[in-house]
Design brief:
The longest helix is centred in the N-terminal third of the chain and has 24 residues, at 13-36. This protein has helices at residues 13-36, 42-50, 56-63, 118-134, 152-172, 190-194, 212-219, 225-229, 231-238, 248-260, 285-288, 299-303, 346-362, 379-383, 386-399, 415-419, 443-460, 467-484, 487-492, 505-516; strands at residues 70-73, 90-97, 100-107, 137-144, 176-185, 197-201, 206-208, 243-245, 313-314, 323-330, 333-340, 366-372, 404-413, 429-432, 437-439. Helix content is 42%, strand content 17%. Strands 1, 2, 3, 4, 5, 6, 7 and 8 form an eight-stranded mixed β-sheet that branches. Strands 9, 10, 11, 12, 13, 14 and 15 form a seven-stranded mixed β-sheet that branches. The protein is globular, with a radius of gyration of 26 Å. It is an alpha/beta fold and 532 residues long. The chain starts with 12 loop residues before the first helix and ends in a 16-residue tail after the last helix. The mean pLDDT is 93.
């Protein structure tokens, strides 16, 4: 393969101006990330330290292999909600434990007692989904007071998914290890109770369906925490605990020891042994990716800065040019890439459909780089079959079985989000750049459509259209769409797995590719009916 030849002048004023705009967005990202690192109020952290406890992130650091990466997932979920802060009350991510890729889910016991709010539940459900899809062992670092009761109506019905997925993973041979450091009460008692391995810290872990006050109310029995649900009792009497750890460090040591003796998954090795850095600097991505999504971007310039040796074998380069497809390697892993270079035309859709089928035939994972306003509209395009060509692409995306990764690098509007493997199409991982926008359509277009509809309604009703009221409504809708389509809003809702610095794209992809290769790669040759 030949390297992509960049056509960008990195010294130009427009390039440097875009860098400055992207740096402002990254400053905002860093501010939010710093907020997500907070582990509750300072007095709660001091109290935990005095009790001989580690904080959640300290537990993760001790659990991980020395110098291991930690790809944190959904760190900003709940950012714009009224919950317990960005990230909720759990830290989730993928790292190496005893040389194995593991999903780690740590309750932040110093933030509201580790109580589960809606954002934390959504995060845990997504964590379970990723673990199942990729055959990962899950390690729960447990210290939670259970559901946040004021939000019980949003939590209770779907909370059972967590328990369901523990046992479904176990059936497939993907074990769950729970290390209990403090409270795990009520429904939360089933986390260690359903795990394949459970470790409890002596004199600290407390696991029971109902605490002493509720037991007194229900049965008039008088008891205490330790005899009712302490680590020693569960290790020596009930059998809920498999290992009684002397302290937190000992508990983490036992967890690492368990991982060490688990069977190795039948993973798919990298396709190519030699890993080459891109010939262009990742720093240049700040100028390549437009901060203003209205400005065009040649996706080849982005690809050149994330793939091995900047080498890219493009498929159908002269056909359907508003979409790019082709093969590359990233950290030695073979990958098929589909990237927008504008609006999706019939030719673009047909090319992508063809390429998805090829990657499934060859069992090559797919990377989607989303930046599109959607499918082209208009009389000529409708007559040309844009609906059926778009439907073929959606069919291929829906029934593709190779693992997929999606990155929103700009606009993600309308059915373009679906065609480019958006959240509804279950990519293994989905990340956003801080400039990304997601909505049915752009704010100007949406407000304009609504104005046309309202004018037509007024004409039909034979009344005058109120220009001033129309302007106020138009301005309001533009503001609402702009606010609800930002990367910050999207990540707060859990619509992505995190907002990332474009310069870190290659590093994120390295971990994602290693993760999806944890199991054998399988393709599909079975699709629904293609409307020809």
């Amino acid at each position: 393969m030949r390297p992509i030849k960049s056509k960008i002048n990195v010294q130009s004023a427009s390039f440097q101006d875009n860098c400055r705009q992207m740096e402002q967005l990254l400053d905002e990202l860093e501010k939010y990330k710093q907020q997500s690192l907070q582990q509750g109020k300072e007095k709660q952290q001091i109290k935990a330290k005095k009790a001989g406890k580690l904080l959640a992130r300290e537990r993760i650091d001790l659990l991980l292999d020395q110098d291991s990466f930690f790809l944190e997932l959904l760190p900003l979920i709940g950012l714009q909600s009224k919950g317990f802060g960005p990230g909720g009350t759990a830290v989730c991510g993928i790292g190496l434990v005893s040389g194995r890729l593991c999903m780690i889910n740590a309750n932040v016991g110093t933030n509201r007692g580790g109580a589960i709010d809606k954002a934390t539940l959504d995060k845990s459900i997504r964590m379970s989904e990723i673990a199942m899809q990729n055959g990962l062992t899950v390690i729960n670092l447990v210290e939670s007071s259970g559901a946040n009761l004021p939000e019980q109506e949003q939590i209770f019905n779907y909370g059972g998914i967590i328990f369901r997925e523990i046992t479904r993973r176990s059936r497939k041979g993907y074990p769950t290890i729970s290390v209990v450091f403090g409270n795990s009460t009520a429904g939360g008692a089933y986390i260690p109770g359903m795990s394949d391995y459970t470790i409890m810290v002596k004199d600290k872990a407390k696991v029971f369906l109902a605490g002493p006050p509720l037991v007194k109310m229900a049965t008039n029995e008088i008891t205490d925490d330790e005899s009712l649900g302490g680590a020693a009792m569960h290790s020596r009497v009930s059998g809920v605990s498999d290992y009684l750890a002397e302290n937190e460090v000992d508990a983490l040591r036992i967890a690492r020891e368990i991982i060490e003796f688990l069977p190795v998954q039948n993973a798919t090795p990298p396709s190519f042994s030699e890993v080459q850095d891109p010939i262009y600097s990742a720093q240049e991505l700040l100028g390549v990716v437009p901060a203003d999504i209205k400005k065009p971007i040649d996706a080849r310039e982005l690809i050149a800065r994330i793939v091995d040796g900047s080498k890219f074998s493009e498929f159908k380069p002269e056909y359907g040019t508003t979409l790019i497809s082709g093969y590359a390697y990233i950290h030695g892993y073979k990958i098929g890439i589909i990237a927008n270079n504008g609006v999706i035309l019939s030719e673009s859709a047909n090319k992508a459909t063809h390429f998805i089928q090829l990657c499934n035939q060859q069992k090559i994972p797919l990377l989607y780089l989303q930046n599109t306003t959607g499918f082209m509209v208009g009389k000529a395009y409708e007559e040309g079959g844009i609906i059926k060509d778009g439907a073929k692409l959606l069919n291929a995306v829906s029934n593709s079985d190779v693992p997929t990764i999606t990155i929103m690098i700009g606009a993600s509007y309308g059915a373009g989000n679906y065609a480019m493997n958006g959240r509804a199409y279950q990519p293994r991982f989905l990340f956003s750049y801080p400039n990304a926008k997601i909505a049915v359509m752009g704010p100007q277009q949406l407000s304009g459509v609504m104005e046309i509809i309202q004018r037509a309604a007024a004409k039909k009703a034979q009344i005058d259209y109120d220009e001033e009221q129309g302007k106020q409504l138009r301005d309001y809708m533009i503001q609402q769409v702009e606010q609800s389509s930002t990367a910050w809003y999207s990540t707060s809702k859990g619509w992505d797995d995190g907002v990332i610095d474009p310069r870190q794209t290659r590093n994120y992809l390295a971990v994602c590719l290693a993760t999806i290769h944890n199991l054998p790669i399988e393709g599909s040759d079975n699709y629904g009916i293609f409307r020809m």
